[in-house]
């Protein structure tokens, strides 16, 4: 009996002790980082367990937009460089001494991304991304909204494809679709070495307007003036110590000293009335989406639009300029430059595609006169309903050598996945290596052809999806230019346009006719370096600045310095000492021919007088 009693007491005390054990407590953690950056968070800092006990991270569930590792007490989060928004990591902690587990806690990460900006000057709101994949916000939605504010879109994603063969006949390829299985492009210029901080710094869009540049041109000489960030940080130069090119973003060198200095009046060279500049490369790492070998290309891009609200053509168009530079030491042969344009005209599943070889464009249009809100249950896109529009992608400065299409799915007609499949599509071959043929759906015919659906859909006698009576589907277009030889140091310049049209008085096919009229007008203005709103197409970087000498007297001067020159406009003057420091500036009216220099110390100086078209420079001595 005594033995049973002792056992009972032991069980009682053990149960009492266990009943007094408490699980650890957990509190959420909040941090903010830049896209592409890495942060280590000591998440146990604000959690607790019983006195004298220790605790550790027991279990974590990763978020959707970063890579996660952990120790017993910390969680390290590496954000994907293309992500913007909020990500969260679930975790549970354990009391090591009693084995009890906490409730679920969260590490909540706000990711800011300077590599995402909107081009939204006119009737189109387009998401521009520094890493080259345009309009498609990963893990979110497409962003080529037209009309702006309508929540209706015509393009899902757009990216450049570049391919070529080296001397050993090995394929080098950079081609992205959605970054679903990896990356082929990364922010920043080509470098000898890469690191994470470098990518974070270059994951940026420099967004600037013509009005901001004009303000800078009028006020840079004002005392206390500070240029806006886009002008002050304009990436005119690379880090040569890291193997980057010495000169990068274009600028207007007002004082002619071959050095970008916004406080001396220099300013970015942009196109249009709003320009967004970015740089990206294919050299940072191995290619995860296409599987192609690196090319070593650097792409300097600018997305832009014109402020022409009274002109329906320019009001519904945006543009891109690219400088595609071979920074490698390899020459590429049989090279092609193409574009992957995933058109989604409202509801993407009832679309037709076509091209016009005269206008050098491809386009999407609705297969009938009504664009539904949805066809498939999972599709949440908004259709354009009655009288749907048409959307074009145009190459302005170089012709198509071929135009192919792909579907959202399918073995033969679906998107490429292997590197040689991408290369085939750029050459007007299907993924299986057979050539595009004339007629029907473009497959299995007897006449090899380079352009799919080049006929006018309004003409039943020409080859289009209408005349072929194809089944509508979610289409992608791939225009291409080649073959080219791409030598080290070569630059391929590419100008493209996205043009939108909707005939509210007609139907889906008259929208195509209106679209072609607009493309024709766009091409005329581009070829003639003009716009309907008065500015030149080529923009401020086309403006010629003349540097002229100035005659000064007396020289040396004591109090007043006279100048002789044909200056009949309001002008700005700046005086610099021998070290290059600005020591005086001011405004001259049309009749003023003297500058007071009595306040200057004795010594050697340089004076520069700026008008809109000329810069006058001279040296003088203050006696």
Question: Which terms would index this structure?
Answer:
five-stranded antiparallel sheet, globular, 8 helices, Immunoglobulin-like, single chain, mainly beta, nine-stranded antiparallel sheet, 623 residues, 3 domains, 12% helix
Describe the structure.
Helix content is 12%, strand content 35%. With 623 residues, it is mainly β. The chain has three domains: 2-112, Immunoglobulins (Immunoglobulin-like, Sandwich); 116-229 and 268-527; 546-622, Sandwich (Immunoglobulin-like), CATH 2.60.40. The strands form nine sheets. Strands 13, 14, 17, 18, 19, 21, 22, 25 and 28 form a nine-stranded antiparallel β-sheet that branches. A five-stranded antiparallel β-sheet has the order 12-11-20-27-26, with helices on one face. Strands 29-36-35-32-33 form a five-stranded mixed β-sheet, with no helix packed on it. Residues 4-18 have low confidence and may be disordered.
């Amino acid at each position: 009996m005594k033995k049973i009693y002792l056992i009972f007491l032991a069980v009682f005390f053990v149960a009492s002790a266990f009943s007094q054990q408490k699980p650890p407590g957990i509190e959420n953690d909040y941090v903010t980082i830049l896209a592409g950056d890495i942060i280590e968070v000591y998440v146990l800092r604000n959690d607790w367990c019983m006195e004298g006990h220790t605790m550790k991270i027991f279990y974590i569930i990763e978020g959707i937009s970063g890579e996660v590792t952990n120790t017993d007490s910390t969680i390290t989060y590496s954000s994907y460089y293309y992500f913007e928004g909020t990500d969260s990591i679930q975790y549970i902690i354990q009391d090591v001494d009693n084995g009890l587990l906490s409730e679920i806690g969260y590490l909540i990460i706000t990711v800011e991304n300077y590599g995402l900006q909107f081009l939204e000057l006119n009737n189109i709101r387009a998401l521009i991304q520094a890493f080259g994949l345009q309009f498609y916000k990963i893990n979110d939605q497409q962003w080529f909204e037209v009309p702006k504010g309508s929540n209706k879109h015509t393009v899902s994603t757009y990216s450049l494809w570049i391919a070529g063969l080296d001397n050993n006949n090995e394929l080098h390829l950079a081609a992205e679709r959605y970054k679903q299985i990896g990356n082929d492009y990364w922010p920043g210029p080509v470098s000898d070495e890469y690191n994470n901080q470098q990518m974070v710094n270059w994951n940026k869009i420099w967004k600037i307007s013509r009005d901001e540049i004009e303000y800078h041109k009028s006020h840079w000489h004002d005392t206390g003036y500070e240029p806006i960030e886009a002008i002050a940080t304009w990436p005119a130069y690379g880090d040569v110590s890291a193997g980057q090119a010495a000169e990068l973003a274009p600028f207007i060198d007002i004082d002619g000293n071959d050095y970008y200095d916004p406080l001396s009046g220099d300013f970015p060279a942009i196109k249009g009335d709003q320009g967004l500049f970015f740089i990206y490369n294919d050299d940072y790492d191995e290619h995860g989406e296409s599987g192609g070998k690196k090319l070593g290309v650097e792409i300097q891009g600018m997305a832009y639009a014109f402020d022409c609200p009274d002109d329906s053509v320019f009001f519904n168009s945006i543009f891109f300029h690219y400088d595609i530079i071979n920074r490698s030491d390899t020459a590429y042969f049989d090279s092609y430059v193409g574009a992957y344009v995933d058109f989604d005209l409202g509801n993407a599943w009832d679309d037709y595609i076509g091209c016009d070889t005269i206008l050098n464009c491809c386009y999407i249009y609705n297969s009938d006169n009504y664009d539904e809100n949805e066809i498939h249950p999972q599709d949440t896109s908004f259709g354009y309903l009655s009288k749907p529009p048409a959307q074009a992608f145009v190459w302005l400065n170089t012709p198509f050598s071929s135009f192919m299409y792909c579907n959202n799915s399918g073995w033969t007609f679906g998107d490429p996945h292997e590197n040689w499949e991408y290369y085939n599509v750029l050459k007007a071959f299907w993924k299986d290596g057979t050539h595009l043929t004339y007629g029907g759906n473009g497959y299995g015919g007897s006449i090899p052809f380079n352009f799919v659906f080049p006929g006018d859909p309004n003409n039943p006698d020409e080859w289009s999806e209408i005349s072929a009576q194809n089944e509508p589907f979610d289409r992608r277009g791939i225009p291409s230019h080649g073959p080219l030889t791409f030598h080290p140091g070569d630059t391929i310049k590419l100008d493209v346009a996205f043009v939108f049209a909707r005939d509210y008085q007609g139907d889906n096919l008259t929208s195509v006719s209106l679209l072609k009229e607009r493309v024709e007008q766009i091409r005329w203005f581009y070829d003639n370096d003009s716009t309907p709103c008065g500015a030149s197409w080529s923009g401020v970087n086309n403006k010629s600045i003349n540097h002229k000498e100035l005659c000064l007297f007396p020289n040396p001067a004591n109090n007043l310095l006279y100048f002789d020159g044909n200056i009949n406009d309001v002008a700005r003057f700046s005086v610099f000492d021998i070290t290059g420091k600005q020591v005086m500036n001011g405004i001259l009216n049309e009749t003023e021919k003297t500058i007071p220099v009595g306040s200057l110390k004795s010594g050697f100086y340089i004076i520069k007088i700026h008008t809109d078209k000329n810069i006058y420079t001279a040296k003088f001595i203050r006696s």
